[in-house]
Amino acid sequence: MSNELGRVEDLPPDYYNGLVSRNLMPLWPSLRAALPYGKPARNTQPMLWRYADVRPELMRAGELTPIEKAERRVLVLCNPGLGLDTLRATPTIYIGLQLILPGETAPNHKHTPSAVRFVVEGNGGYTVVRGEKLPMEKGDLILTPPGLWHQHGHEGTGPVVWLDALDLPVVYGIEASYCTEAPLQTITDPKNANVTRFRQGGVMPYSRLQRVRGDYPLLRFPWKEVKQTLGELASVTAKDEAVHLAYINPETGQECLPTLGFSALMLRPGETLKMTKRSASCCFHVVEGEGTALIDGVSQKFTEADTMAAPTHAEITLSNASGTTPTYLFMVDDAPLHRKLGIYEEFN
Ligand code: GTQ
């Protein structure tokens, strides 16, 4: 093991300057920073954004900035450890809170990053994806996969807020991020048949059986059903096991999107859950209930609609503060990307 590697200062200045003038760098002064021993270097801080703090600012944005001047009226949850201007909650995950007001539409576009919406509050919001009009009720997960046209609207009263999660940091980081705009889509499926087709796990329309897989058959995951399934899963899950559901592509059984994974956790009354330590970074959004999150030694109390971020290789313990009511969390992680890169790890 070479602990004492040569530094830039150990080199003759004319040699080092000559390298720089030829766009060359010696590896050895930076080798340990690029490849630290045992554990990655992490700048991501354990974070909690309280909805009570974010909501008033978002409502103010509604007064200050008309939708035409914003396209998407979003406040981005930025991890200070990564620099606010890079728009990252974790190295790979972008999280924004988007506000749409009654009667507004956010224009139709498609882009290379993958995106999802997770509804935080309000009624009457909808997203049109691939011509399918998907209602947005609190807790619903809506996919807008790479390359699929999507536009948003609001037919109800009062503000509608949802959380956007994108792999923008990854796609931007590889200089592949761009979008295309087009006139509003014609709604070809107002009944969001995708939800109906895959309503019951274990069965699906026969015609789908031999299909080439590779698209996104299911775009909306209603919270009502996920919550009910969590409750039923709890009844067959041992006390020391997590009540944890993965959102999947029903045709492949795999993750719904190429880079980001989505899941829902139920913390039973009084439960403390020590998560398996993993290589993936992640964010949690509180759907219902309250509790405490201990992330790499930083303890924070959370309540409904708060959002948290945890770095790669984090130690995470989640506790339900209530002895009588469950707490529900929505989780976004970059485990699919780690798996594709061949670097996914679980520890303990
Ligand atoms: O709603 O399509 O937060 O394109 C960032 C980029 C939301 C969206 C964001 C987007 C959108």
Care to describe what's here?
This protein has helices at 13-21, 31-34, 51-64, 168-173, 193-197, 223-234, 335-341; strands spanning 47-49, 74-76, 94-100, 105-111, 115-121, 125-129, 132-136, 141-144, 150-154, 160-166, 179-181, 220-221, 243-246, 261-267, 272-274, 282-288, 291-295, 298-302, 307-310, 316-320, 327-333. It is of the alpha+beta class. The chain has a single domain, classed as Jelly Rolls, CATH 2.60.120.10. Strands 1-19-16-21-14-13 form a six-stranded antiparallel sheet. The chain has a six-stranded antiparallel sheet with strand order 2-3-10-5-8-12. It is globular. Residues 72, 74, 96, 98, 111, 115, 150, 164, 166 line the site of 2,5-dihydroxybenzoic acid (GTQ). The site of 2,5-dihydroxybenzoic acid has 9 residues, from strand 3 and strand 10.
In short:
Helices cover 16% and strands 30% of the residues.
List the helices and strands and how they pair.
Elements lengths: L12 H9 L9 H4 L12 E3 L1 H14 L9 E3 L17 E7 L4 E7 L3 E7 L3 E5 L2 E5 L4 E4 L5 E5 L5 E7 L1 H6 L5 E3 L11 H5 L22 E2 L1 H12 L8 E4 L14 E7 L4 E3 L7 E7 L2 E5 L2 E5 L4 E4 L5 E5 L6 E7 L1 H7 L7
Antiparallel strand pairs: 1-19, 2-3, 3-10, 4-9, 4-11, 5-8, 5-10, 6-7, 6-9, 8-12, 13-14, 14-21, 15-20, 16-19, 16-21, 17-18, 17-20
The structure holds 2,5-dihydroxybenzoic acid.
